[in-house]
Amino acid sequence: xxxxxxxxxxxxxxxxxxxxxxxxxxxxxxxxxxxxxxxxxxxxxxxxxxxxxxxxxxxxxxxxxxx
Amino acid sequence: xxxxxxxxxxxxxxxxxxxxxxxxxxxxxxxxxxxxxxxxxxxxxxxxxxxxxxxxxxxxxxxxxxxxxxxxxxxxxxxxxxxxxxxxxxxxxxxxxxxxxxxxxxxxxxxxxxxxxxxxxxxxxxxxxxxxxxxxxxxxxxxxxxxxxxxxxxxxxxxxxxxxxxxxxxxxxxxxxxxxxxxxxxxxxxxxxxxxxxxxxxxxxxxxxxxxxxxxxxxxxxxxxxxxxxxxxxxxxxxxxxxxxxx
Amino acid sequence: xxxxxxxxxxxxxxxxxxxxxxxxxxxxxxxxxxxxxxxxxxxxxxxxxxxxxxxxxxxxxxxxxxxxxxxxxxxxxxxxxxxxxxxxxxxxxxxxxxxxxxxxxxxxxxxxxxxxxxxxxxxxxxxxxxxxxxxxxxxxxxxxxxxxxxxxxxxxxxxxxxxxxxxxxxxxxxxxxxxxxxxxxxxxxxxxxxxxxxxxxxxxxxxxxxxxxxxxxxxxxxxxxxxxxxxxxxxxxxxxxxxxxxxxxxxxxxxxxxxxxxxxxxxxxxxxxxxxxxxxxxxxxxxxxxxxxxxxxxxxxxxxxxxxxxxxxxxxxxxxxxxxxxxxxxxxxxxxxxxxxxxxxxxxxxxxxxxxxx
Lengths: 67, 247, 358
Known about the structure:
The complex is a heterotrimer.
Chain A: E1 3-6, H1 16-20, E2 26-32, E3 38-42, H2 53-57, E4 63-66
Antiparallel strand pairs in A: 1-4, 2-3
Chain B: E1 3-5, H1 24-38, E2 44-48, E3 63-66, H2 72-82, E4 87-93, H3 94-100, H4 102-110, E5 116-121, H5 159-163, E6 171-176, H6 180-198, E7 204-209, H7 213-216, H8 220-234, E8 238-242
Parallel strand pairs in B: 2-3, 2-4, 4-5, 5-7, 6-7
Antiparallel strand pairs in B: 6-8
Chain C: E1 4-7, H1 8-18, E2 23-26, H2 34-45, E3 49-52, H3 56-68, E4 73-77, H4 79-84, H5 86-94, E5 99-105, H6 121-125, E6 136-138, H7 143-160, E7 163-169, H8 170-174, E8 176-179, E9 209-210, H9 217-237, E10 241-244, E11 251-254, H10 257-272, E12 277-282, E13 284-286, H11 290-294, E14 303-308, H12 316-323, E15 329-333, H13 342-354
Parallel strand pairs in C: 2-3, 2-4, 4-5, 5-7, 6-7, 11-12, 11-14, 14-15
Antiparallel strand pairs in C: 1-8, 6-13, 10-12
């Protein structure tokens, strides 16, 4: 099952990835990084299809995609 | 599981200096990805502007010089003429390129310097706190145009169209960074700009419509809508000139 | 070595090429036009690059690029052009970036007269731009000296990795005199380590990252200390002055460049009449030869004339600072391209001698 990995320290919770994910797999999570942002995470029931749209949109290159 | 999208190697291992949701980050990421792709990280000089574009210095893991405000095309000319084997990237914002540095970009383009210029147009002065830029839209508010830009403060300047009046440039395209499809198209355009320089074809100019959540006073997601509804109506996307294959 | 009969501007342009200059960017402005004209043909012959910039402002930023990447680079202009280059000079002094800057001075202020004058003394020695930096500044008074100092300026600029100014005036630029040209230096482009802040790319110190906008205050302050130390070293090691007929001088003229040449004629004329006059001639206007003035014996030297092609007098502040009130100082100047004759200066000296500098 495809998935994404988000580098906690790079995420700035800008939500562009959440906005662009066609499957609604992403959400603001509970983890707060050193800069004080609540980092984005995959939902437990996420059905990622590795379309890479989130990673393409991320201004921090914080997202890597696995298939 | 195979990694099918990774963070470019040419990016420094730390967050960018940009605000959350600022598409400068996407532009930086595309550039670093292409530096990886062409394998030129040790031979690149990134000539950066004054303004948010200068924050590229915390992103690109290459040689770099933050030039004086508006003078990146001149500084890049000095570098490229002295060391033609270097890959010289010029990265500028709209204040840097279209306001104080208008003469420099026009003459650099007019001399057909073998350079790749990436021009990020977010219609505002970002770093200094939201003043009006030459590309600010009519009626768009800025800290120096409280009630919105009026004709007395000039009209948005269309840099691709202006540079397209010059003889020497080889490739001129305007892209946007508001959606994955547009980001991938922008990557294609910048790749061509890289290739043109590496093959000594001359001056390439790629304008990227971008956002400024902080100074537009809206969320990153809302800023994408503003770009689609307003910015991209004023600044049509497209290829204005492509002689890459003829040169 | 054979002597060539050359015009000042062309002589210094060739001297620059022989000093290793392989990049020039400049803009037309009288009275230095022969320099870019000459180099536009000459530099390509030696594998160098010449660019006529769209302005002096663009030109200094091209020089910054060439210097950043390790090429010996130069620009030349006149007063108004130097004003347009001031931000670039400030950045070069700060980063630092080596380069040679020629100012072939003209009348001023404003657009000023296009003929030679010495109205940019303060600009050259006190504040060539914002931010409190200094430029090692040479002031030749003959074409041979101009050739030698431009040649030297390239080595000094690259020794200190900082911009070095050569302050000529329109007369020296336009005169023709026999000169001996120095040998050609083959200097390769060489990327030198930049003094910069690790803040820019802590992960990869071998990258050459240059910025004068360093957001880390401590880094920036340390940087200012490095610059201040460089200025102190230059002040200690690079001072040059000519003391002409000073041993028995009872009166002293302080003058540089073309003014100093006229002063020497006046001194010979007065000495023929038994009046012992000497000359202190700054060859570097920064650092300024204060010591030559401090050591004057006020029981022997009765008066000083500060002689400049400038109205008002500009160098007099430094003369005063060296003399510290021990000996009276008078000034005399012509401007807007008018050059005083040695007789005219003799009259001035006689006037002050008779009135005992009152």
